[in-house]
Amino acid sequence: MAFRQTRPRINVSFEFFPPKTEKMEETLWASVQRLAPLAPEFVSVTYGAGGSTRERTHHTVRRILTETRLKPAAHLTCVDASRQEVDEVIRQYRDTGVRHFVALRGDSASGVGEKYRPHPEGYANAVELVAGLKAIDDFEISVSAYPEKHPESPDFATDIDMLKRKVDNGATRAMTQFFFDNDAYERFVERVRRAGIYIPIVPGIVPIHDFTKIARFSAACGASIPAWLAERFEGLEKDPETHSHVAAAVCSEQVLDLVDRGVRDFHFYTMNRAELVYSICHILGLRPQPEEPEENAAAAAGASA
Ligand code: FAD
């Protein structure tokens, strides 16, 4: 319980998804502005399978680049696309100034759990996509990892072998699928280290805005819902206020326990909402940072001109 007395330095990153409507765009930007002063290491923007959000992801990443001082990471999937199409997207991002990608295979359009078929002229999986990215430029590359195993993977050894191949091809960070069982995360990191993989395995944390939805999604992506977690949210379907307090308590408990286990980096699935993530970051010791000196200096120079 050392953290309760001292405050280690914590690094965070935030994940957003590209908005579909103007209203959603407003919500996203309000969240970006609320969270930006916490000085995340980077913010990432998801990419719909098969490029279904290609334009919207690009637009969001470009706005982050041009309107904020945040460093964006563009998610990119290779499912249902030829190498040529994917490479074109990569080059477009590079021309916009993007230097960091989250390289993913993605799921077939028919949904998670459906047997994956690589595009005949495409990158077969994230391992190949990482190599493809590196062949184009020396980008920073993050990838996925699964503390409770990817649902299509026959065993942990296969999963960790895939992770190792992604690292061998140039990935330097993995963000995990969300999980609620910290023991499972710790066991996974031990397995990864035993396999000779030393990149950061950053826990993916999802604050629970809607337990019913998360429970449904968990079943599809292989994250378990412990009985104690289901019990905490029992009967709160029509009580958003209590649900929100419980969600904050559950999430702070999870991250503080991870800090006690030595974790210092967190990747938050924000769902484009800032309130819970902001509170959890506050509990982790993060405080709004003043504007960077050169920015202030530039503003001052502009004002006195
Ligand atoms: P890979 O790493 O290529 O493979 C995943 C697993 O499948 C492997 O670990 C392995 O166990 C098994 N596997 C794959 N190929 C083989 C093979 N040839 N032989 C044996 N086993 C194999 N999805 C989106 O559509 N857009 C996003 O923006 C997005 N962002 C994500 C961000 C994070 C941090 C995470 C964890 C997931 C994200 N996903 C996203 C979901 C992801 O696309 C799915 O989980 C998908 O099913 C696998 O993608 P991957 O990159 O993990 O695949």
Q: What features would you describe in this structure?
A:
46% of the residues lie in helices and 14% in strands. It has 305 residues and is of the alpha/beta class. It has an eight-stranded parallel β-barrel with strand order 1-2-3-4-5-6-7-8, surrounded by four helices. α9 runs parallel beside α10 (275-283). The radius of gyration is 20 Å and the shape is globular. The protein binds flavin-adenine dinucleotide. Residues 46-47, 49, 75, 77, 102, 104-107, 125-126, 144, 150, 152-153, 158-159, 162, 175, 177, 204 line the site of flavin-adenine dinucleotide. This is Methylenetetrahydrofolate reductase. It catalyses: (6S)-5-methyl-5,6,7,8-tetrahydrofolate + NAD(+) = (6R)-5,10-methylene-5,6,7,8-tetrahydrofolate + NADH + H(+). It is an enzyme of class 1 (oxidoreductase).
